[in-house]
């Protein structure tokens, strides 16, 4: 009886527990059925999500165009590869395979297209299968595949291989204006975001609004017949149209690339602007980068707008503009050049050449005399008046150009020495874009134009203009008559026999401008010393009567020879870009035929008659030096099909070479001669040859020893003077002199 009682008790307890659990579960089921939610989760919505596929429709980022509608930055489709390795994804494997069934075939087929190792692809697939993964990805080699790669893989019809389309920012011209256009890339949300340049500045305009599409599917991820599809269309970003001209920009990029390869400077900036409107037609820097393949980027910044420098003697254009406007500039008045000293400074301001004597102010400007500018500011105009003009030219403020990270220079004007040196661009700093803005007043009848890069913004769908930029006059620091006189002075710098800008003469157009050679601050104090430790620059414009284009170029610390002027790389950029751009814009040449510097394609002269070739070359205007008494030409310093100017000195070595008289030859020509006849040469000094150890007419034997002494040219024979500005305390260094004898 006791046993039966205990059994009955246990049975009742178990029955009670069962009933309680049953009632609890039933109650829970009834509650869930009644409310349709579990722990706050709506089961209907959860079920809908489980049986609904939803894909994002990415919006295209707006295109960046040049002024003529050429694409400079756009989105292109790339593809990320993945493979489904779960067998359950193939419910009817006999009819259709939806997963990777044959790992070996898949790996061997993908490897050559992806550029990866077959074993690595196989390992990825096998690891996914062994770990019961539904799908696997292939790392770096499977991301951002091109359309060509996707098509090649699609043609293989491999089961289980799929793609996710992803946009990528693409720059069709590579390094082209990269620090202006900028750079954009994917962020953590797979949205392309602008990081630098126009891409960053106008990111809100360029970024579109993504859309989406959703539909219902079965458990095998197959679309239902009644899929209840919902689509929200994407909205592409706005298009940005720049003032940049792709053709002119290409001229500029090519020239900068050549200078980088030949001279290896630390930095280059170059800008082409329409001075009548302020539109930037081309702008570039070196070092730069290719936004399609970044590698190690040396310089993200656009130095034209972000890096102030001492402008050097290019500032003298604004000094005489102020003097003319004030009515105190008398170009034919004379002054004593060489040194300028006042009681308020401890050391005199000096010209780079102290042997000019008494010269006119016009000649002083052409020679880039620091003393001339100092006298104009201190003795005639007054420092306070000149300071007002520095403000009028907006050297004390940013230009407001529509590019990010603009900086402004600093006007040092607290002490007399600073007030004097500012007149020739020492101490005070400006950015290249500040100087260009100020110079538009000279080229544009006194009206100073605000520079800009963005022409207009359009809606991607309708083409409607969302924003439009127009030329804006920023001020009138000088009058139209003053601007005309300054243009004439700038032309004389290029055309005068004593001008520092003779190297910058164009073939078909009259050009004007101002050279500059600014010293570089030494972190340890003072300025760097040495032949190449300068920023060589040129502010130039053409055609000079009514400038259509203006350029400002700076080349910092180029690798130049001791006898080579710093203007060599700068002038190459100016001539190449300005001449080509003016012709491209169909600007009519304004030079008389007899004024034009002609070019000549050098013929094949080796083995030809000396008499015949000399006659032909002389008729073409070339300066010909025949070396030796032979009848046939054995060698020359110019090779076949080289394009040279008719000012070039051509050395023709005959089959019986003898020593020529090299007096007054440049170091370049002497070295060319020694190389042609294989002489062992030693040189002393710089400038032009004054002494040779081997007598004229002596028979030249291979590896003979030759000594040649050089001396700087005197005032009458001086060619292409290149100024070296005085330092902040008024001290000057030796003159930079261009001893090249041609402009090619």
UniProtKB/TrEMBL annotation:
Keyword Transmembrane (UniProt): yes
CDD domains: PASTA_Pbp2x-like_1, PASTA_Pbp2x-like_2
Pathway in which the depicted protein is active: Cell wall biogenesis; peptidoglycan biosynthesis
Record keywords: Membrane, Transmembrane, Transmembrane helix
Keyword match Transmembrane helix: yes
Family: Belongs to the transpeptidase family.
Protein name: serine-type D-Ala-D-Ala carboxypeptidase
């Amino acid at each position: 009886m006791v046993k039966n009682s205990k059994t009955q008790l246990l049975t009742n307890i178990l029955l009670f527990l069962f009933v309680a659990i049953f009632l609890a579960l039933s109650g829970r089921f009834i509650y869930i059925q009644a409310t349709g939610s579990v722990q706050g989760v709506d089961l209907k919505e959860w079920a809908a999500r489980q049986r609904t596929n939803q894909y994002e429709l990415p919006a295209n980022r707006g295109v960046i165009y040049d002024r003529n509608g050429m694409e400079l930055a756009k989105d292109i489709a790339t593809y990320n590869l993945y493979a489904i390795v779960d067998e359950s994804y193939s419910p009817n494997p006999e009819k259709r395979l939806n997963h990777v069934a044959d790992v070996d075939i898949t790996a061997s087929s993908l490897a050559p297209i992806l550029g990866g190792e077959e074993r690595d692809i196989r390992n990825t697939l096998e690891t996914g299968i062994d770990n019961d993964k539904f799908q696997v990805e292939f790392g770096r080699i499977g991301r951002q595949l091109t359309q060509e790669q996707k098509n090649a893989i699609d043609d293989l019809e491999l089961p289980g291989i799929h793609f996710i389309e992803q946009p990528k920012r693409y720059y069709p011209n590579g390094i082209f204006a990269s620090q202006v256009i900028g750079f954009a890339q994917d962020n953590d949300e797979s949205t392309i975001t602008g990081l630098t340049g126009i891409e960053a500045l106008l990111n809100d305009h360029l970024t579109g609004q993504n859309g989406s599409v959703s539909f219902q599917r079965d458990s095998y991820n197959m679309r239902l017949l009644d899929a209840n599809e919902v689509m929200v269309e994407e909205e592409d970003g706005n298009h940005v149209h720049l003032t940049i001209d792709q053709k002119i920009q290409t001229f500029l990029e090519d020239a900068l690339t050549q200078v980088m390869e030949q001279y290896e400077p630390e930095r280059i900036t170059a800008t082409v602007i329409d001075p009548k409107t302020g539109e930037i037609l081309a702008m570039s820097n070196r070092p730069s980068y290719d936004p399609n393949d970044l590698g190690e980027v040396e310089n993200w910044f656009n130095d034209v707008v972000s890096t102030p420098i001492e402008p050097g003697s290019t500032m003298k254009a604004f000094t005489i503009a102020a003097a003319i406007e004030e009515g105190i500039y008398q170009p034919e008045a004379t002054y004593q050049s060489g040194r300028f000293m006042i009681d308020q400074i401890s050391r005199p301001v000096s010209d780079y050449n102290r042997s000019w004597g008494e010269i006119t102010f016009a000649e002083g400007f052409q020679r880039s005399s620091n003393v001339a500018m100092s006298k104009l500011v201190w003795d005639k105009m007054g420092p306070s008046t000149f300071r007002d003009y520095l403000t009028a030219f907006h050297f004390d403020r940013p230009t407001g150009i529509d590019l990010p990270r603009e900086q402004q220079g600093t006007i040092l004007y607290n002490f007399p020495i600073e007030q004097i040196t500012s007149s020739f661009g020492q101490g005070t700093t400006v950015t290249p874009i500040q100087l260009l803005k100020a110079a538009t007043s000279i080229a544009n009848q006194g009206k100073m134009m605000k520079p800009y890069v963005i022409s207009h913004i359009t809606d991607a769908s309708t083409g409607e203009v969302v924003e439009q930029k127009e030329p804006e006059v920023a001020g009138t620091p000088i009058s139209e008559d003053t601007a005309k006189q300054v243009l004439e002075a700038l032309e004389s710098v290029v055309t005068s026999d004593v001008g520092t800008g003779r190297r910058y003469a164009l073939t078909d157009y009259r050009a004007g401008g101002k050279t500059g050679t600014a010293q570089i601050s030494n972190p340890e104090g003072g300025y760097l010393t040495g032949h190449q430790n300068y920023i060589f620059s040129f502010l130039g414009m053409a055609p000079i009567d009514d400038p259509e284009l203006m350029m400002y170029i700076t080349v910092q610390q180029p690798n130049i020879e001791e006898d080579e002027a710093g203007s060599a790389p700068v002038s190459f950029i100016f001539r190449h870009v300005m001449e080509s751009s003016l012709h491209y814009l169909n600007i009519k040449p304004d030079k008389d035929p007899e004024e034009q510097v002609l070019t000549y394609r050098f013929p094949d002269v080796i083995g030809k008659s000396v008499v015949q070739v000399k006659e032909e070359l002389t008729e073409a205007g070339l300066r010909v030096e025949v070396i030796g008494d032979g009848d046939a030409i054995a060698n020359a310093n110019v090779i076949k099909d080289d394009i040279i100017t008719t000012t070039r000195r051509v050395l023709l070595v005959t089959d019986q070479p003898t020593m020529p008289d090299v007096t007054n030859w440049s170091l370049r020509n002497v070295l060319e001669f020694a190389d042609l006849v294989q002489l062992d040469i030693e040189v002393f000094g710089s400038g032009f040859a004054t002494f040779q150890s081997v007598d004229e007419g002596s028979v030249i034997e291979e590896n003979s020893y030759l000594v040649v002494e050089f001396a700087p040219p005197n005032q009458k024979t001086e060619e292409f003077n290149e100024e070296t500005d005085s330092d902040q305390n008024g001290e000057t260094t030796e003159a930079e002199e261009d001893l090249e004898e041609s402009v090619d």
